[in-house]
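Section 4.2 – Deliverable D4.2 (structural model, holo form)

The reporting period included a commitment to supply a predicted holo structure for the target in complex with nicotinamide-adenine-dinucleotide. Inputs used:
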Amino acid sequence: MERILDGQAALITGSTSGIGLGIARLFAEAGARVMLNGFGRAEEIAAARAGIGALMGVAEAPYSPADMAKPAEVRAMVAAAEAAFGRLDILVNNAGIQFVSPVQDFPEEKWDAILAINLSSNFHAIKAALPGMLGRRYGRIINIASAHGLVASPFKTAYVAAKHGVVGLTKSVALEIAETPITCNAICPGFVRTPLAEAQVKPLAEKHGVSEEVALKQHLLAKQPSKRWIEVEEVARMALYLAGPGSGGVNGAALSVDGGWLAA
Ligand code: NAD
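Output (structure tokens):
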């Protein structure tokens, strides 16, 4: 692996699992120092810290337990990353949750949680990280949105609203920093093989009275023309491109990694 992020400092939210952990791994392999964040069992977090730490040449990667639903904790996490590394070059807003329900039954606390974690945390982290990036005249902000940031599906009102919000936030920030060497972009994955997406297969199989394999192909991946999961590394590769030195001309983009979903 070419060490295109050598010496750079990155903070990746929701990086104890799935896409965030995959991005952390690839960034560390490319030479970055990475701070992890996210929930999970203590031994899972310890394993993630040790695994990413080994790639960084340290015993364990720095970790923030900040809850992305709490703005003060988001701000403290950014401050902790700047303190740990002396700077913050790359911010990846990735933490996210999902909940599926008809809008008339959608629990209000789920709506509030999804908006807070999937959208507002991005705002709070960007607001906290940008002054340092502007001061050093370098930065890469990468927001993990979704195909659902560009088009909708039924029963996912909070998620679709939040992810459309992430794409809008990305564009607005990009315009504000357009004349600086900082960029702000969104990645819009289709269905990626992670715990968040795999958890949707079983309820679909039960709802339609079919096997999980049939539920996956005919229902979950119905909108994904490739008819296969996107792999975590395929999203991480896009993030690495956006974090790296060759992407300076890309700003305010919402880049699809979705097996053709948005082309249909
Ligand atoms: P995942 O469930 O595997 O990982 C989510 C991560 O976010 C975990 O580390 C979890 O601990 C963390 N997290 C959840 N709530 C948090 C909170 N309040 N504070 C801090 N961390 C929190 O999910 P994933 O599939 O890897 O999803 C990562 C991102 O990618 C999400 O924003 C998701 O919406 C987006 N996405 C996923 C898919 C997919 O198909 N998997 C598709 C499009 C977009």
